[in-house]
Amino acid sequence: MSQVVGFLGAGQMARALAGGFRQAGLVDGENVVFFDPSSEAADAFQQAVPGSRGLDDELSVVRQAGLLFLAVKPQVMPLVLEKLAGQVTPGTLVVSIAAGIGLARLVEALGSERVIRVMPNTPCLVGKGASAFSATEAVGPEDCQLVQELMESVGIAVRVQEDQMDAVTGLSGSGPAYIYTVIEALSDAGVAEGLPRQVASQLATQTTLGAAVMVQQTGEPPSALTDQVTSPGGTTIAGLQALADHGLSAALGAAVESATRRSKELGE
User: Cα(72)–Cα(79) distance, rounded to whole angstroms?
Assistant: First the structure.
């Protein structure tokens, strides 16, 4: 891709995305520009994306970028949008990764309709992200294909309807934290049953990873895979009954619901 890719915000996610694009050969480091008021973040970005150029302010990035990523926190986005009002040309494709900030709000603030909203998650940092995106009607299929290809360089990417983006945020955007909690709980339980901490942590982590890969590679529903390791009167059914008794499914459902609601609040 020959066009210049710009990033407003140079935090972890921006570095993960830009670095992933570069490693996949989709973008040259020399074609990446960015701005972040934090010198520490700017230095980290340049290390993660060799050849990238830090610019003096937001508008300098906007003037050079054909593809512009808004990679700032939702709480900072209103100030950034205020600075960009009327400055984005029709030739620039804008991609926002801020949770809760809807397409209509972005279009109104920027004065441009060529906007895509993406919800990535932190496993993008290790090339295992789960991202979803939605686009305005002014965005053509080539633009959507470009963004999908870029996001797939750091994991998977699916297109969803705009009104589903808050649910995406509640599920996959916040989801890694839920899984970290599960891994920690499994590890703690192993220690409580007599395992050394390191062993318990390794087993809990690899078990979680292996189970996820099984679902991904076999294409089987999780319930079918559960049946394969559950025998009548055995250890697994005893454990599953304990999970049901203590409400694991309900707790995870409540977590997604609560995070989805918060995403909607951030967009108001």
Answer: 10
Residue 1: pLDDT over 80: no
CATH 3.40.50.720 correct for 5-172: yes
What's the first-to-final CA gap in the chain, in angstroms?
35
Task: Domain ranges for the chain, please list them.
Answer: 5-172, 175-266
What is the value of pTM for the model shown? 0.89
Q: Is the dihedral of CA 14, 57, 61, 159 positive or negative?
A: positive
| Beta carbons within 8 Å of 78's beta carbon, 6+ residues apart | 109
Would you say how long the chain is, in residues?
268
| pLDDT value at 203 more than 80 | yes
- Per-residue pLDDT for 237 more than 90? yes
Checking if the pLDDT of 265 tops 90, the result is no
Distance (Å, rounded) from C-alpha 63 to C-alpha 86?
Answer: 12
Phi-psi region of 46 (alpha: psi -120 to 50; beta: other; left: phi over 0): alpha
CATH of domain 175-266: 1.10.3730.10
For residue 2, the model assigns a pLDDT of 79
Question: How many other C-beta atoms can be found within 10 angstroms of the C-beta atom of residue 192?
Answer: 9
